[in-house]
Amino acid sequence: MRLKFDSQKCIGCRLCQLACSASHEGVFNPKLARLKINSFYSKLGLVVEGIVCTLCLQCVNTCPVDAIKYDGSKLSLDEAQCTGCMSCLDSCPEGVIVNKESIVGLCDMCNGEPQCIAWCPHEALSMVQLMEEVG
């Protein structure tokens, strides 16, 4: 399963980012969220972009100490094994891995109960099977 973002439903409130950082770090800090919401105005009105982990597994393949694992449904990080080299952060094409001072934070789907989905008031985030179209 992976996250799907629907820009047509999102209003750019960033509650998902706050829920993510609170769930993982115990603080409301969008910079520590494992997803990004960017919003801006164009000639057509409000434009909202959501960037989520696509489970491309670049982080798993790049980690030199195998601290990042993928079990077929979610990523996990063995913090004791992580050396803080940040190679996974540099390899993430989405830029959603977080630098938490010598260790990384990555989307682990909140162990099956993603808080970003739970707190989104407009249902702009959902979980989909890997093979489903998420565009």
TrEMBL record:
Q: Which Pfam families match?
A: Fer4_4, Fer4_7
Determine if Transmembrane helix is one of this entry's keywords: no
Every copy of the 4Fe-4S ferredoxin-type domain together lies at 1-31, 44-72, 73-102
Highest rank taxon of the organism = Bacteria
> InterPro entries under this entry?
4Fe4S_Fe-S-bd (IPR017896), 4Fe4S_Fe_S_CS (IPR017900), RnfB_subfamily (IPR050294)
Q: Which PANTHER family match?
A: DIMETHYLSULFOXIDE REDUCTASE CHAIN B (PTHR42859:SF10), OXIDOREDUCTASE (PTHR42859)
Q: What is this protein called?
A: 4Fe-4S dicluster domain-containing protein
Q: Which GO terms describe its molecular function?
A: 4 iron, 4 sulfur cluster binding; metal ion binding
Q: What is the lineage of its organism?
A: Bacteria, Bacillati, Bacillota, Clostridia, Eubacteriales
Gene3D superfamilies assigned to the protein according to its UniProt record, in alphabetical order? 3.30.70.20
Q: Which UniProt keywords apply?
A: 4Fe-4S, Electron transport, Iron, Iron-sulfur, Metal-binding, Transport
